[in-house]
Amino acid sequence: MGCSQHIDATSVTEAISILQSQGDKAVLVAGGTDLVGMLNNRLISPETLVNIKTIPGMDYIREYSGGLRIGALTRIRDIETSAIIREYFPVLAEAAVSVGSPQIRRMGTLGGNFCQEVRCWYYRRSPATGKTFTCYRKGGNVCYATSGDNRYHSVIGGKKCFAACPSDMAVALASLHAHATLAGASGTRSVPVEDFFIPLGNILKPGEMLTEVSIPALKPGSRQKFLKFRHRKTIDFALCSVASVLEVEAGVVADASLVLGGVAPFPYRAKAAEQVLKGQPLTEDLASEAGAAALRAARPLSLNAYKVTIGRVLVKRAILGVDM
Amino acid sequence: MSELSVVGKNVIRLDALEKVTGTALYAADEALGEPGMLHGKVLWSPHAHARIISIDISRAKKVPGVEAVLTGKDVPEARVGSCVDDQHMLAREKVRFVGDAVAVVAARTLEAAEEALALIKVKYEVLPAVFDAEEAMRPDCPVVLHPGLSGYKRNMYPYLGNDLPGPNVHTHHKVRRGNVEEGFRQADLIVENRFSTARISHCQLEPASSVARPNVDGTLVISTSTKSVYTGVQAEVCRFFGLPPSKVRGVTHYIGGNFGSAPRAHIFAALAAIRTGRPVKVVFSREECFFRDLNRLPMVIYLKDGVKKDGTLVARQIKLICNCGAYAQITPLVIRNGSFGSSQYRIPNFRWDAYGVYTNEPPSGAFRGFGNAQPFWAMEQHMDIIAEKLRMDPVELRQKNLIAEGEENLRGEKTHSMGAAECLDKVAQWIGWGRPTSQPSSNTVKVAKGFALANKYTQVDTIASALVRFNKDGFVDVFHGSDEIGQGSQTVLAQIAAEELGVPVEKIKVIWGDSARVPYDHGAISSRTTMFVGNAIRAACQDVKRLICATASPVMGAAPEDLEARGGQIYFRSNPSKSMPVSDLFLPGRATCLPHDAELLGQGTFFYKGYSDGDPETGQGTRLTASYCYTAHAVEVAVDTETGEVKVLRFCSATDVGRAINPKLCEAQSEGGIAQGIGSALYEEMLLDRGRVLNCNFHDYGMPRMTELPGNHDLKCFLVEANHREGPFGAKGMGEGAMTPSAPAIANAIYNATGVRLMDLPMSPERLLRALKAQNKEAGHKSGPL
Question: Would you say the C-alpha torsion B171, B691, B227, B529 has a positive or negative sign?
């Protein structure tokens, strides 16, 4: 792998100071389920690996005034099995169990799930194949997917890069209006989860790291659903996913939060669909209408229009609480 | 025949203990930490088609630890190949696909080899490329991959090079029977469609690995993962490098799956070993396997069928355009042998034209089914289309047209060992054909059943030899040249020897995998090991029994023909209660017996004397195949019409194996075939962008996982035993047929569920949604005028 240094960080402050002093020559590693593949394929060649697993106290699921704080080092498996998450935020537990495989969920962390790289096969291409693609994401000036095979790419919000955001956790957490806490040398800041992701990566500045995700209190009795469509039922990333959180009072949708994954470079909040639902009696027709509204902004590439069709169906089914 | 005691029993695999304890050796285990060993790495072409202007290796050679940097000028002048000699081991003037080999580096460490590889500077002039076989086939195609094709040497079936319609066509295979025009005139119904299949990868678990060691006596010892230690290693290396067989020794260990893949890492290892005089190891990465393994040949299939009102097939015409990639490799044979499958039905008028076409894609080759699964994809959907149009039951339509025992098939062969009808009945009964589905359809999820019947021949023109040594402790060593590629052949062969000798299978030791130590065999290909090697071993066992009786004759005071050797004893035929242990023949001091520690050796060879090559113009012959294994698949699927997702709910196979030597192993082959068949039907396709494989890893490539396969009570594999008179105890080959009917069976079920017929593989959600949309549109048009 060619890394010359491996540092076990003992505090967030230490990790940040290493990131600050070494710039992009240092990267953080926790579960490593994505990073090791990146290193093997030489997508990154850092000089220093900063192990943050050794930072105490970053692995927690904690209640606070009706909401929840989850440490960035919390493993996906712990989110999947947390009694409190299963009871109050089932959409998050459903998203967690859909991630990768049991092995990956036991290694991978919440922070890593956010910070993992996209699955675009042009970007990921291994040097063992003879030639790689220098795309926008790698500092080039072209997206090979737009003129190539883009069946798994974004239908909404692509800009320069059209790879889809691979994080399932972010989709569920965005539907719960969660915020991500970013720590840097000058303190911390908090951003809505869906704003963490941008087409060429995320908003982390050099020397910043993700430390926590917080979920605000939720009215009890909300209807939550996470649906994920993929080619095979395990391990694969979402071709399209939907997290929906609805407050329904006497058959009428009082509030709705709908976020789609796999269709955009970020968790896509389907605001138009939320508006369609709010204040209306929850019926199958309304759910279909919301499905159509959710994908109205879609501008599919040459090979991925099917994602729009599937997205509409998923939104409808998630609203109705139907399983795949 | 007396009752069988070992054949037909579920003997535990001989390799089970080694494999579950992790002690089994594979090719990659070879030479670990061996002093002086070099690591070989290959530089692949990044372009689909380009002229090599220059190669600068000066910087690469200076990397510490690098012992050799070899390019096209270091390889033999002559082109090499399997059927057509169309390739230099390392590209000389041109590269023709992304993955064409350009240079080999051998270095003391893998890191040094990789560093050197990156420092080789190749200047290319990029040329226009062609990827579509129908485009490449046109006589006026502006891209010509091999302008020298007509002068290339053909090693096998040279007649396949006749009547080529375009400069990129290397193979034209013809079958003619009756007169199809006349047949179509007689037909009451004509059905005509275009089908296509995808390029798919074997995905055997073990990536190619090879070590080549130059011995001080001038012998090159090559240890590699291949399916045939003689033909795949020794013969090939001899031909490629102009060496005599005595100078090349092929060695194999256990092989982690094969399915027809032929990555030939050993050619690069051998090249570097010859040039450096040092052992060289080459291990391919998974990515490299994807473009070097010789994937399954994609075909475009134009099928036209003529049928009478009562369902009698009267004419079938097939045109196949095969995208062979940049080099012919074994594809001319795949194309020729892919034609055998169609002989399962009685078709008086038949015309087959299959074309092998060069394109700038990675070369294809053998893949479980060897060219038969692709035409079946079309033919077995057509049987359902015809049945529906004639309002016939599709089981009945097939039964009606099945060729019968003793009948001459459309290639001129006399049909024998025909279990297809029973296979069809078995799967139809298990799936509950004509009865309700296991779960009802809903508004959005449609449940239905479908099935298909197919077969796979076993190659006739090969040979197998075996040696048997009967030891004084009653153990028996069996030596043969076929490889263990995971299918369990060693266990089956031990059972055949045990049965023939009447000894417990625990007393049989099977030795294989070294051309210096075991007799010749053509290899673990074409579902031939059980029949060919099994027969050779059986003959060798009979030979050693004769020797035992002859040796015992003077001791026991009886003529050899009055004695019988069985179970380690020698009996009087007239009085079986009187016997002598075979081990007594080894007793020292009995001058009439074997001299001290001498051996009891038997040998046997099996081949077909009367096989025929087939007429080049008509494909007709009397004995073109050794046997046919028939396989029927029936499946129940749930199709989500809103998302295009297809779930396989239940799956049943019935396979005519002649006789199951080891039923559990036959079932395991069937189950593996079903998994691979489901993959080929619904998920698998090598996706290429301008010749580059995009999904060349197990994450992006769609092999089914356990979650995509039915299990427990939803999966059933029947074995049918239409004994083959030439097979050992009636057995015939079965492994390759195991996935040939899967894709059309699933397509037929999807049609029955949705009314949508998919003619391109794989049947992905994208394709299904598009077809459903078109169907809705059409329905909309139909109701439009109202």
Answer: negative
- Provide the domain count of chain B: 3
pLDDT digits (tens, 9 = 90+) for A138-193: 999 999 999 999 999 999 999 999 999 999 999 999 999 999 999 999 999 999 99
Min Cα distance B772 → chain A (Å) is: 12
Question: In chain B, whose CA is at the least distance from the CA of A306?
Answer: B766
Which residue on chain B is closest to A304 by alpha carbon? B766
Residues of B with Cβ-Cβ distance to A125 under 8 angstroms:
694
Binned at pLDDT 50, 70 and 90, residue B235 comes out as very high
Residues counted in chain B: 786
B356 lies in the same domain as B324:
yes
Q: What is the CA radius of gyration of chain A?
A: 19
ipTM summary value: 0.96
Residues B622 and B734 occupy one common structural domain: yes
Say whether both B618 and B733 belong to one domain: yes
B707 pLDDT higher than 90: yes
What pLDDT does residue A39 have? Answer: 92
A321, two tokens: 């609480």
The pLDDT tens digits of the residues spanning B381-406 come to: 999 999 999 999 999 999 999 999 99
Check if A1 contacts B (Cβ < 8 Å). Answer: no
How far apart CA B270 and CA B221 sit, in angstroms, is 9
- Predicted confidence band at B786 (pLDDT cuts at 50, 70, 90)? very low
For residues B698 and B552, state if they share a domain: no
Q: Model confidence over B323-349: pLDDT tens digits?
A: 999 999 999 999 999 999 999 999 999
pTM > 0.90: yes or no: yes
Same domain? B655 vs B758? yes
The verdict on B338 and B475 lying in the same domain is: no
What pLDDT is stored for residue B226 in this prediction?
85
Helix (H) or strand (E) holding A210: strand A209-215
Which tokens hold the place of B642? 């809103």
Same domain, residue pair B588 and B620: no
Looking at residue B546, its pLDDT comes to 96
Q: What is the pLDDT of residues B171-190, one digit of tens each?
A: 999 999 999 999 999 999 99
Contact by Cβ (8 Å): B237, B270: yes
Residue B89 sits in a domain whose CATH number is 3.90.1170.50
- Beta-carbon contacts of B64 under 8 Å, excluding residues fewer than 6 positions away, are B112
Q: How far is B442 from chain A (nearest CA, A)?
A: 13
Q: Which residues 127-166 on chain A approach chain B with CB closer than 8 angstroms? A: 128-131, 144, 148-149, 151
Report the distance separating Cα A103 and Cα B611, nearest Å. Answer: 54
**Which of A128, A149, A235 comes nearest B705 by C-beta?**
A235
Contact A235, A225 (CB under 8 A): no
Q: Is the pLDDT of residue B273 over 90?
A: yes
Mean pLDDT of chain B: 95
Residue B566 sits in which domain range? 461-607
Residues 6+ apart with CB under 8 A from B618: B174, B175, B176, B177
Q: Helices B373-389 & B742-754, crossing angle to 10 degrees?
A: 30
Q: What is the per-residue pLDDT for B372?
A: 98
Question: Are residues B470 and B577 both part of a single domain?
Answer: yes
Find chain A residues with C-beta within 8 A of B689's C-beta: 122, 144, 148-149
A323 touches chain B (CB under 8 A): no
CA distance B531 to B730: 9
Which among A121, A131, A309 has CB closest to B695?
A: A121
Which among B648, B650, B652 is positioned nearest to B671, based on CA atoms? Answer: B652
Return the DSSP state at A109: B
Nearest CA to B316 out of B196, B176, B165, B160 is that of B176
Tokens of B340: 């055998």
Rounded to whole angstroms, the Cα distance separating A222 from B697 reads 41
Q: Helix, strand, or coil here: B162? A: coil
Examine the pLDDT at B592 and tell me if it is beyond 80. Answer: no
